[in-house]
Write a structure and sequence with these properties.
The complex is a heterodimer. Chain A is α/β, with parallel strands linked by helices. In chain A, 44% of the residues lie in helices and 11% in strands. The chains are: A alpha/beta, B alpha+beta.
Chain lengths: 459, 158
């Protein structure tokens, strides 16, 4: 394979198949980069991807030096879409700088945060974009092997990725001496086995190595000591899907979209009590109002907006007064919330905010890997306290205890799961303190969800 | 049949050998065993230890860590209700209660006929279509309490 052959495949295919599918339900506010092929091409046909300029970004990358590729990503200001928002180009730069006989690229496709489902759609709808993103990363840092860690709950995504890898190998887009250069790259899929913590980058690496998915101490960071002890770049699905666009169109074009510190677009996944749940790709900096009332079409029949959660079990609660806020990596932080990975759930008058954060804490408790004590024990005790509140056995001191222990878990846990687990409690205490007091003092729940039956058991 | 039999042990042995050149082969091998036996029997763990030199106790620890690997035999169909936030606010608990009632078992238990095991299902990424119920890899969306018995009978017939 080379650029001439690639161009020929594209023109031959377009000559006989000039018409692609029409994408469904594209909202006028959307601007699709990551989803540009979504529902348009057949994800199981590599020629359709090539016909949409697929693998042209990679063919451009290998005519550049490794540092030039990385500089382009740095200039684009692309930040990791998994939730933390670390600059992708810097990650690559650090990994390039660490010399080693072997390096790895990992695609983190272990999307498991409740309410977050854009990665599933990207993987199922355009698997080649991930492969191309990984190849560019691999070339940039000097890796010859990539892993895609897909959660086992996404069997269709895994199947389509395997088909895509096999087709890329057949066309010699993956393999040895790709595009008649010295660069070789292969990709292996690894299936998760139902452990949410394996979405944490170091736990994920432990899992690929065949161990329990326990988070590692950082530093050393993966750029230095990652998979099998080698320098490793690990990027989220959506992050990698942005890479081909940046290579093809340049960082300036990319920066035209989004806000100053959060360039480009974000794919949001909306669910809950709104009319049109689903995924939407819009420029960063869209307001919550636009997300809920324009993209989501407003609240469902009979539902009134009560609150929203962004960032899942690591995120924060948002009230009516926050709906004018812009959503990007930084704007929600002063309000004790985060954009996170872009999963937004909308709740109505029949949903209780304390019941919701209890559910989040139950999730964190069950998914804690158990390695460090603050997270393993702390999430359990925090859950018990919330359960006391909804069960009717708490008193006002429970609020102070929640804060005290929450701080401890936040500051002393080993990895992001524990560090972020108390976030929903803090933001809810800030914006729904009255609801806590009501539950505790009057054993009353505005939504009528909490049963306070713990007290009845004791009587 | 997903069970411990000599034939399945032979099948497993062949599949297991595919990973001789794989770095970090344990999780893919355990997936093979889980698929063949419906759980990961001690016999299979010992075979892995012999071929790959991974201590049995270590393998056991890995199995116990991951939700989808089982120490004990499980049913032909792993059935469960998504417990994600969006499914939760669409009252998924009621669906799970109905499921337990219909099958007469609790979560992690298997029906006497060996057909169904109720499993924990975490967010499966279909949040705007909930509540979701899954049977192995098949997903049922916007499930109602009334649907549960119909879905179960679908699998009893086949």
């Amino acid at each position: 394979m080379n650029i001439t052959e690639l161009t020929k495949i594209k023109s031959d295919y377009l000559a006989t198949n000039p018409i692609f599918n029409e994408p469904k339900n594209v909202h006028p506010l959307e601007h699709r980069i990551v989803l540009k092929n979504y529902q348009i091409i057949n994800p199981e046909e590599i020629v359709e991807y090539i016909s949409k300029d697929g693998y042209f970004a990679f063919s451009k990358a290998i005519t550049m030096s490794q540092s030039e590729v990385i500089e382009m990503i740095i200039q684009s200001n692309l930040r990791g879409r998994g939730g933390v928002g670390f600059p992708t180009g810097l990650k690559w730069k650090f990994t390039l700088a660490n010399e080693s006989d072997e390096k790895y690229v990992i695609c983190n496709a272990d999307e498991g945060e409740p309410g977050t489902f854009m990665d599933r759609h990207i993987l199922e709808g355009d698997p080649h974009s991930i492969i191309e993103g990984m190849m560019i990363a691999g070339y940039a840092i000097g890796a010859s092997k990539g892993y895609i860690y897909v959660r086992a709950e996404y069997p269709l995504a895994a199947k389509r990725l395997q088909i895509a890898i096999d087709q890329a190998k057949d066309l010699h887009i993956l393999g040895t001496n790709i595009f008649e250069t010295k660069f070789s790259f292969e990709i292996e899929i690894r299936l998760g086995a139902g452990a949410f913590i394996c979405g944490e980058e170091t736990a994920l690496m432990e899992s690929i190595e065949g161990k329990r998915g326990l988070s590692r101490n950082k530093p050393p960071f993966p750029a230095e000591n990652g998979l099998f002890g080698k320098p490793t770049v690990i990027n989220n699905v959506e992050t990698l899907a942005n890479v081909p666009f940046i290579l093809l169109h340049g960082p300036d074009k990319y920066k035209e979209l989004g806000t100053e510190k959060s360039s480009g677009t974000k794919v949001f996944s909306l669910s809950g009590k709104i009319k049109n749940g689903g995924i939407y790709e819009v420029p960063m900096g869209i307001t919550l109002n636009e997300i809920i009332y324009k993209l989501g079409g407003g609240m469902k029949e009979g539902s009134q907006f009560h609150f929203a959660f962004s960032g899942g079990p690591s995120g924060g609660v948002l009230r009516e007064e926050h709906l004018h806020l812009k959503v990007d990596f930084d704007s929600l932080i002063p309000f004790d919330s985060i954009m996170g990975s872009g999963g937004i759930i909308i709740f109505d008058q029949n949903d209780c905010v304390i019941d919701t954060i209890k559910l989040f804490m139950e999730f964190n408790k069950e998914e804690s890997c158990g390695k460090c004590t603050p997270c393993r024990e702390g999430t359990g005790i925090l859950f018990d306290m919330l359960d006391d509140i909804t069960g009717g056995t708490a008193n006002l001191d429970t609020i102070d205890a929640l804060k005290y222990l929450g701080r401890m878990v936040q500051t002393s846990s080993l990895c992001g799961l524990g560090q972020a687990a108390p976030n929903p409690i803090f933001s809810t205490l800030r914006y729904f303190k009255d609801e806590f007091v009501k539950h505790i003092e009057h054993k009353s729940c505005s939504a009528g969800i909490c049963t306070f039956d713990k007290v009845m058991e004791e009587e | 049949m997903r069970e411990l039999s000599n034939q399945n042990l032979e099948t497993f042995k062949t599949k297991m050998m595919k990973y001789k050149k794989t770095k970090g082969p344990l999780i893919p091998i355990l997936h093979e065993a889980q698929e063949i036996f419906g759980y990961i029997p001690l016999e299979a763990q010992q075979m892995i230890e012999e071929e790959y030199g991974i201590p049995n106790a270590f393998i056991n620890g890995v199995i116990s860590f991951y939700e989808m690997f089982y120490h004990e035999p499980t049913g032909e169909y792993h059935i469960g209700v998504c417990s994600g936030t969006s499914c939760h606010i669409n009252r998924s608990k009621r669906i799970l209660e109905e499921l337990k009632k219909e099958l007469g078992i609790e979560v992690h238990e298997t029906t006497n006929d060996g057909l169904f095991t109720i499993v924990n299902v975490k967010c499966i990424g279909r949040c705007s279509e909930g509540p979701n119920l899954t049977v192995n890899n098949k997903v049922y969306s916007q499930v109602t309490v009334e649907d549960v018995s119909h879905i179960i009978s679908e699998f009893k017939k086949s």
